[in-house]
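Explain the record.
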Amino acid sequence: MTGLTSKDAGGKRRHWWRSLTFLTFALLALALSGGSGYSAQHNVHGAVYSWAREHPGEPVPVLIQTESEASTVAGFIESSGGEVSRQFNVISAVEASVPASFVATLAAQPGVAWVSLDAPVASTGAVVDLKKLATTYPLSVGADDPWSKGYSGAGIGVAVVDTGISPANHPDFVDSSGRSRVVAQVVVNPSTTNTVDGYGHGTHIAGIVGGDGDLLSGKYVGIAPRANLIEVKAADDQGNSSLGDVVAGLEWVYNNRATYNIRVVNLSLHSSVAESYKTSPLDAAVETLWFNGIFVVVASGNEGGVSGAVSYPPANDPFVMTVGAIDDMGTTAFADDVPASWSSFGATQDGFTKPELLTPGRNIISVIDTNSILYKTLPDHIVDSKYFRLSGTSMAAGVMSGVGALVLQRHPDWTPGQLKCSLIATSRQLSSPNSAFKVPKAGDVSNLSAAKCNSDVGLAPSTALAPMLKAAVIAFVLDQPSPSTTASAIGMDLAAAGLQNATLATVDWSAIKWNSITWSAIKWSAIKWDAIKWDAIKWDAIKWSLVSPDGVNFSAIKWDAIKWSAIKWDAIKWSAIKWDAIKWDAIKWDAIKWDVRLD
């Protein structure tokens, strides 16, 4: 997908994606030059200034991550001549368009943590290749093995955040009773209101994930032919989308994950601006889903091995499953499989090797909306009148999402980290000279009786996702029959903390003396997290600026003992947290065991 950004006076978004060549330049050089007219700030991504120089006189599209109430920042923007498009809850952020001369002022405003360009999001699919091949990709990843054992993804929801899925009643998307397996359709792009896939990309991905091939008697079957599909239309009918649109889509997935049992989300797209996962709002959003039990699958991109090829969110996030593409040569034999020359690989700007696995991505035949742009403009790719052939890591990501659905039907208790690690551990290596790349084997991993490892161990999350633990331990103590006894057991002085005789429902959070708590004495493994009544906490009354994490011994916390499933994350007022008061460099991230499930 290409991109949309700011709105004109009439509220219509303007196309600006055609001038993206500036992204290959040194982004900060022009912003810091004497004639720029802009004052570079330490909490502004360089692409913001570069975009402003490329579009003189136009408002700059930005995503502002906040460390105070997002509404306060939004109000400041609007009162200063900017335009606010959306506020988010999945991350504490505001999407807006602001004058270029206002960027420095905005960045210096209290409560503004980081300013990113609301960059266009690029599809990672549609690498044109005229050679026609049969559909062998399900066998190339061993999907036939779980199929033979009755696993077809039934009951698992896979969200496809893309250009849409249509028609929802396509024979390949309908179950045996005649009901569509496209169980939900939502539009999060403000430039369109219809759920039709006018571009064609999303429908093709959905068919790879979960098409059952009924239109032509099973000739073209996806990987998980009984999975439920959730359409999250983040692009307009021309395939245009922005970073904010995708974050909005992920927020919808987060809010509706339980309703539709969404266990997998497919992102066959990436930002057009490289940015560290530590500061990227898109990476923060995918990590929120990951820690809430959703297996996030991301296409690596189609840039081959060029420098920085895998530095674009969310493919650069260390937690998610990033997928590259192989060419299976149209055969079910493994020996002839080779990496696609255009499949992105390399190291991210934070030193992580991507992608983790490769799946078939060349000449993949799948469902297409016959009224879509792709169908009408690429007639040579039409197969059997109603299907379509495309190549790209977009297609490879769809294959992996289907594999994830198969395994999660067999192992519904697995966390995303367990699933990812197990897929890697049981994968097959490509033949020399491509032995550095591996391909998953759906049969082997689904046959495991239990997860053997966890890929989250040793990884540090986005800096926006950790501080709720301090409030969590207080909430736990106050909810126990004998708070004093419990507090003593974990080394907490209730009186010193200002909590004597208080209950969770009546505590005056503003009276808590956070600095008096001996955090290093808390026995985290003794906490029964699933007993905490999170919805009774008055989060907006907590004075986060008084919380001192200096004494927290994070290396002593037994994270795998925490029952995350009981936490009401959407009740937490994240925007009230004073993030700048947290001393992140004191946290021993490599000691944290992130084998958690938060759904």
